[in-house]
Amino acid sequence: MTSVVEVNPKVQAAPAVSAKAAIALGAGIAVCGAASFASLGMIASVKADVKDISAAETTGLNVWMSADTAKTTLAGTNVCAGAKPTSGWDNRACYEEGAAILIEQAGGDVTMNGDGTFTQGGNDAGDVEPIGTPYFQAGLCPVNVHWHLGAEHRSEGQFDENGTGPADASRKLLAEAEVRRGGRCHHYDATDPKFTTAYDWKHCVDMKVGETYEVHWPHSAFGACGTPNQYQTPFYDGVFCALDQETAASVGSATTGDVELVSLNTQVGVQSQTFTIVNDEDYYYPDLMRGMIVEGTRGTEITGYTGSTTGTSRDNEVCSSYGPITWHVDRTCHMISASSFDKMCADMKSQRDDMSGDFYAHGSREVVADDLTANNKVNLKTQYAHGGLN
Fold first, then answer.
1. Taking burial as the number of CB atoms within 10 A of a residue's CB, which of 12, 97, 174, 292 is the most buried?
2. Quick check: 224 and 83 in contact, CB under 8 A?
3. How many CA within 13 A on the CB side of residue 266?
């Protein structure tokens, strides 16, 4: 089973491997015709006390996930710091004088009807269209990864209000604040140990086996693509890092001024993929940080539409002004190992920017009302077939 990492269309990720095989390859041995496992080797060397690789016989992937692994942020100047816009795009009322605002919102209902059509939203997006190809083909790179507790989007029968999960549903952030949970997937089975066996998390914070999480990968043509500054928290710093200030003077951010603003919906996009966490290494994937998994049934049933930023500071009364941006949403829920998430958090620790603000699940915005959702939803299954390398 091979997987395609979208950020590099010419490289295929190595097959999913068992815990023992992952450790054996963790020193960075390249697999011919497949992606290198160098990142595994880098993580394995983070702590000097991780000496005995043979311990993988009993501890599996956790051998390179030491409980006290220090944050290994790269040295150097973060040129993207402060690029987040400081004015002009504040949240606003969703309805003004009784009518919905024109900035379409996310996340909406991405369900595809049985006849291949979509129930379109009531927000007239006019001539605005979502990016119609995988983002790497449009010149965008991923600039952040974060996830939400439950699903912010709705895909009927996949992740919705009828999904299930662990009984201890109340989850909290570091500051002990309640977090709103979105919809859940339908995989959970309380009689199957892969959904109920606790995982010893080393890097991600406050995560739960059996729970549903919607992962977002913001992409941008304004990102510091291919440099140590590519990944940023908050994601706005990554999204707007190289924005030409003269073409977007009202934004008021401290940007580097490299890329001209043409239209946000063609230059900024988000990938969204929803998972149920399982404690089973058969569902391990080594490179979750760099984009949605595109292989087989994963990352192919894609709904494209234009929307906004999400999160619990917005709902159906208070809306985001960051838009319109493109969304590519995998409308199928998938299972993935807890170790895949923990490996992703370990990778996040090795970036130049401090990404610790994204080591835990953020709250989920309630599903956007139909009249606030764009009327331009499209099926991108053909475009994503074969990893977008048609």
1. 292
2. no
3. 8
The two structure tokens encoding residue 230: 């590519």
Cβ atoms of 69 and 317 within 8 Å: the answer is no
CA dihedral 63, 66, 67, 70 (to 10 degrees): -170
Q: Is the pTM of this model over 0.85?
A: no
d(CA 258, CA 265): 18
Please write the tens of the pLDDT for every residue from 194-207: 999 999 999 999 99
Q: Which H helix or E strand runs over 339? A: helix 338-349
Residues 363/274/137/224 CA torsion (nearest 10 deg): 40
DSSP conformational letter for 254: -
More confident residue, 34 or 302: 302
Summarised one tens digit per residue, pLDDT across range 215-224 is 999 999 999 9
Asked if 323 and 207 count as a contact pair (C-beta separation under 8 A), the reply is: no
Give me the phi and psi of 337, to 5 degrees please: -75, 150
Do the beta carbons of residue 83 and residue 243 sit within 8 Å?
A: yes
- Could you give the CA distance from residue 202 to residue 137 in angstroms, rounded to a whole number? 35
Domain ranges of the chain: 72-388
Q: State how far the Cα of 125 lies from the Cα of 123, in Å rounded to an integer.
A: 6
Exposure string for 202-213, b = 16+ CB within 10 A, e = fewer: bbbeebbbbbbb
CA distance readout (Å), 174 to 182, 235, 276, 351, 362: 19, 19, 22, 21, 11
Is 302 within 8 Å of 384 (Cβ atoms)? yes
- The DSSP symbol for 381 reads H
